Amino acid sequence: MFGIFKKKSAKEKLQNKYEKLLKQAHSLSTVDRKKSDGKIVEAEEIMKQLEKLNV
Q: Which residue from 3, 10, 23, 36 lies 20 to 30 Å from 43 (Cα-Cα)?
């Protein structure tokens, strides 16, 4: 019930951002491949940050 007031951890924020970037990359892949590739690179950087948090 009080979960709505719980702040997201840094890991949760990064995971959400990673998923959002992958969705954007997927939708851009049919329109502009260069922008799609840029979003994938951004998502990979976030994945590296997530891996550092898990260590």
A: 3
